[in-house]
Request: fold
Amino acid sequence: MYLLKERTMCLTLFILLTWHLYLENISKDKKLAIDYTSKWNNVAIVCDGIRVVGLGDVGPEAAIPVMEGKSVLFKVLGGCKCLSLVY
Reply:
């Protein structure tokens, strides 16, 4: 029971603080979203496997290594967080 109360208090505190941050700062100045979130350095590479560079139509499973390689290049050369999405 004590653990449940502690968890509920933590969740409530987290929600209140993020809500306050949004109301007081980000809602008034949209440029602050870059300062308070990781919006500024996230990239997503999306591929369905139809046009994979150098391989052609290989399907989504075979495109995964290529997309992961691209995400490593973005991370190393661009300094950004990258997520490869293959569907």
About this structure: Strands lie at 42-47, 81-86. The radius of gyration is 20 Å. Residues 1-37 form one domain.
